[in-house]
Specification:
- The complex is a heterodimer of chains A (423) and B (427).
- By secondary structure, chain A is mainly alpha-helical.
- Helices cover 67% and strands 4% of the residues of chain A.
- Chain A has helices at residues 15-36, 68-88, 94-113, 121-147, 155-173, 176-200, 205-228, 232-235, 255-259, 264-282, 284-294, 296-301, 306-333, 344-354, 359-382, 388-392, 394-406; strands spanning 45-49, 64-67, 118-120, 244-245, 261-262.
- In chain A, helix 4 crosses helix 14, helix 4 (121-147) runs antiparallel to helix 15 (359-382) and helix 5 (155-173) crosses helix 13 (306-333).
- Chain A starts with 14 loop residues before the first helix and ends in a 17-residue tail after the last helix.
- Chain B is 72% helix and 0% strand.
- The termini of chain B are close together.
- Classes of the chains: A mainly alpha (423), B mainly alpha (427).
- Chains A and B meet through helix 7, helix 14, helix 16 and helix 17 of A and helix 8, helix 9, helix 14, helix 16 and helix 17 of B.
Chain lengths: 423, 427
Amino acid sequence: MTTNLVHKNAKRTNFRTRLAPSILLIVAGLAIILLFGMNIEPGLNTTFGLTPLGNKSVIPIPNLVLPVQLAIYVLALVVFFVAGWQLARGIHSTGILAGVVAFCFVAAFLTWAAKGNSMDLVGMMNTSLVRATPIALAALCGVISERAGVVNIAIEGIMLMSALASVMVATLAHNLYAGLLAGILTGMIVAGLHAILVIQFKVDQIISGVAINIIGTGATSFISNRYMQMYTDKINNSGVFPNIPIPLLAKIPILGPVVFENNIIVYIMLILVAVTFVLLFYTRWGLRTRAVGEHPKAADTLGINVYLMRYVNVILGGLIAGIGGAYFTIGAVGRFDKLMTAGKGFIGLAAMIFGNWNPVGALGSSLIFGFADSLQIKMQILDIPVPSEFLQMAPYLVTIIVLAGLVGRVHPPAADGTAYEKQ
Amino acid sequence: MKAKATQTNSEASGQKEAPIYEGDRRKVSKLIQTLLVPVLAVLTGFIIGAVVIASSNDAVIAAYRNFFHAPGAALVATLKAITTAYGALFYGSFGSIAEIYHGIQTYYATGDSKSFLLGIYPFTESLATVTPYILAGLAVAVGFKCGLFNIGAEGQFGIGALCSAFVGYSIHGLPWYIHLPLAMLAGAAGGAIWGAIPGLLKGLTGAHEVVNTIMMNYISFRLSDWLLNGPMKATGYRPLTPVIENSAMLPRFFPDPLRFNWGFFVALAIAGFVYWFLFKTTLGFEIRAVGANPDGARYAGMNIVRNFVVAMTLSGALAGLAGATQVLGIDHWVGQGFSAGYGFDSIAIALLGQSHPLGVVLAALLWGTLRSGATSMQSLAGVPIEIISIIQGLVIVFVAAPAVIRWIYRIRAISTQTTVLTRGWGK
C-alpha cells in the first residue's frame, strides 16, 4: 500500500481523478434534460412570485417569469459547462461543485413542477428558513459539543424534553418567555446528565446518547399520555411566539420577508450562529475548546482543565438544543404531541457533519435540509405525480447522500469521541 | 479515534493478582460479576420505575397532601400503588397460579379445556411476544460484535415484515413446507438488504452507521406508509395488507385466542446458529476481531469492508426475520406502526445480554415477558405503557455504565468485556 506524501490540500491534477466528478456532472445535466425538459409545450411559462401576497410593507418587485423549456435547457447547459471545467482544470472546492449542480437541479425541478402555474418563491424561502431553525439549533449544539470532543447523539431526546417543558411552563405561567427559559434549563440539565455519564463515568458516548434518547422518548410520551391529553387547556395550550418584523429591514425586496419577519426563536438562532462562530474561532476560550477537542493531552499539559471545558461545552450545547426544542412547541404549534421532533435532532447531526463542524457551515446545510422539507410540502400542494410519501423521504435521503459523499472530505475534531483520562 | 468505556486506572491497578490455584474461584466470581451488573441494572431500573409509578398515581398524591396528619396512610397508599402496578405486570406476564390450577382441575373433571387455556394465556402470550425480541436482539448483538451500532433494527424489522407478508398473501396454492420457508426467507432477505446499505456505506465511505441506520428507519416508515396505502393495501379503508395464506402461517400449538407458535423454537434454533457462526467459524472470528480491534484486524490481513458488510447484512437479516415471525406467527397481516418499539427494545436486550446469543435469549425472555405484561399494567392499574420505555432507558444506562451500578451498590470491579462503539464520525 503506497503512502500518500502529498499534502492533503494540494491540487490534484491527475486526469483520472478529475474524470469521475465530471462524469457525474454530465449525468446530472442529462438528468435535468431528460427528467424535466421533455415534452414541454413551447409557450409555457412558470411564474415565480417574488413578493408575498398581501404583504404591504415590502417594496414590491415584479415576479420572475421564465419560459419553461428555455430555462431548463439553460440550467442543463450551466451544468455541462461546469462539467467541462472540471474535466479540463479540476475544481478544488467541493462546495462550488455541489452547490452549482444542486442549484441547477432544484431550479429545473421547480420550473418543471410549476409549469403553467405560479409559485410563491419568497414564501418557500421563508418556510425553508423557518423549518431549518430547529435543525440549525441542533447542529449548533452538536458543533459546540463535538468541538470539545464529546459526541452528542442525545440531541433528539434533549429537544423532546425541552419541548415538553417549555410548553408546560408557558401554559401554566401564561408567559411564553418563561416557557423558553424552562426549555433552556431542561436542555442544560439533560445535557449535564450526558456530560456526567460520559466524562465522569466514561460511558461510551454513543450508548449514553441513545439511552438518553430512549428515556426522553419514554418520559415525554408517558407524560403526554398521562397528563397532556386530560388537562390540555391547563398545561398544553400555550400559544406561539408572534412574528416580529424588524422595522426597516423588513422592507428589503426579497431578503425582507424571508429573513426579517420571523419569530424570536429564528432571530435567536441567527444570532447564535454568529456568536458561536466568533466564540469558537476568535476568542481565547474558543481556542481552548478546540484544543481540548483536537488533542486533550496537549491541552492538559498547558494547564487547561479538560474536564471543565468539556462539561461547560456540553452544557452550553444543551442550552442551544433547549432553545431548539422549545421551537417545536412554543415557536410553531403551541402544544406538545408525542414524538414531535421526528428525527430533526439526527438531521441536525448530519447538518453538522455537512457543515464541517463550523457554525456557519451548519447553518448553510440546515438551510438545505429546511428547503428539502418545505419542498415536499409545496409539492404535495402542486399535485405532481410523485407520491407524497416519497417526497417526505427527501430530507432523510439527502442526509444519507450527504454523509456518504462528504465524510471523507470533512475533518472532525481529532479527539472527538474519546474519553479523556488524566494521567 | 477509538474510545473504550473502561474502569478508571485506579480501580484496575487496585486489583491483586489472583494465584493460579484459585482458578476455579476466579471463574465463578467472574460469572457472578457478569450476571451481577445486568441483574442489578434491571432491579435498579424497576426501583426507579416504582418511584415514577407512585408519583404519578392520583391516590398517592392525595395521600401525601395529608402527610403530616396521617403519614402511615401516605406510605400505605404508595405501597398499594406500586404493588398494584407490578402485580398487574406479573399477572399480565405469567397469569395466576390459582387460575391455572383451577383450569387443570376443570379439565380433569369435565374434559373442558377452556378455563385451562385461559389460565395459561398470559404465559403463552409472553412466549409469543418473546420470539421477535430474540431475533431482533440477536440482530443488534451481531452488530455490536463487529463494533457496529445497528439502530436500524426497527426499519429492517418493518421491511422484513412487509416482504414476508407479500410472499404470504400473493402466492397461492403452495404447500406449507415450501410457502412458509419462502416467506421467512423473503423477510430475511428484505431486512438483509436494508441492513447491507448502511453497512456498505460504512465500509466504503466510513459514514457512521448510527445516523445512516436512523435515516433508513425513517425512510422505511415512509415506504411502508406508501405501500400500505397503495400497492399492498387490502380491500377496504384501513391501511393494512391482506391476510396471508394459511400455508404461510407458523403453526400454533393451542386453539385461538392463544397465539404461541413454532416461531419461538425457530428463534431458539437461530440463536444456536448465530452462536455457532460467531464462535465456531472463521468468518465469525473475523467479525469479532474487527469488532475488538479494527486496526489489529487490518494488520492481520482481514478485509474490514467485507466484514462490516457481512455483519450488517446478517444483522439486518435477523431483524427482518424477527418481523417475519411476527407477521407469520402472530398477526398474519401488516398494519401501520407495525414495528414500533422493536428498535430500541432490541438495543436494550443486546446490551443486557452482553451481545452473547445465550445472554440475548435470556434478556429477550425477560423483556418480552415484561412488554406482554405491561399492557395489563395499563389496563388493570392505569399506568401508561411508556413506563416500560423509561425503565428500559435506565437499564441501558446502568448496563452501559457498570461504574454507576458499582458506585451505587459498592461492588468491586473485576475486568469484564465492554462494548466499544464510538469511533468518531468516520475516517
